[in-house]
């Protein structure tokens, strides 16, 4: 059971989701720094985005590059949109909501095409 919980594929997806969180944090700091000035926000942005790319590269050991990048960018876009509405008070118009829904649908299709068994990633 322990071996199943710590599978390379599960670890790769965990690293990918950590990379997505870092991307959202880094890009949020970029927006904060651009709006408020000061260099501290840019330093946090650079660190978070560098960590995001590093974690993405580790995730590529178990997930194909096309799927990993699509999920990283797509969920990053959706997450950042949620943060921008919540943190910055930005409004979404119906076309944006439709676009986000289509992006999520596309990510689902791309991810379902990825082999999910251990033999495919070995």
TrEMBL record:
User: Which terms under GO biological process does the entry name?
Assistant: glycine betaine transport; spermidine transmembrane transport
Q: Which GO terms describe its molecular function?
A: amino-acid betaine transmembrane transporter activity; antiporter activity; choline transmembrane transporter activity
Tell me the leader sequence span.
Answer: none
Highest rank taxon of the organism: Bacteria
Q: Which UniProt keywords apply?
A: Cell inner membrane, Cell membrane, Membrane, Transmembrane, Transmembrane helix
Q: Which residues cross the membrane?
A: 38-56, 68-89
Subcellular location(s): the record lists: Cell inner membrane; Cell membrane
Instruction: Give the UniProt entry's GO cellular component terms.
Output: plasma membrane
Membrane topology per record: Multi-pass membrane protein
SUPFAM superfamilies listed in its UniProt record:
Multidrug resistance efflux transporter EmrE (SSF103481)
- Quote the PANTHER family the UniProt record gives: SMR FAMILY PROTON-DEPENDENT DRUG EFFLUX TRANSPORTER SUGE, SPERMIDINE EXPORT PROTEIN MDTJ
Q: How does it assemble?
A: Forms a complex with MdtI.
Family membership: Belongs to the drug/metabolite transporter (DMT) superfamily. Small multidrug resistance (SMR) (TC 2.A.7.1) family.
Write the protein's name: Spermidine export protein MdtJ
Species in which this protein is naturally found: Chromobacterium sinusclupearum
Upper classification of the source organism reads: Bacteria, Pseudomonadati, Pseudomonadota, Betaproteobacteria, Neisseriales
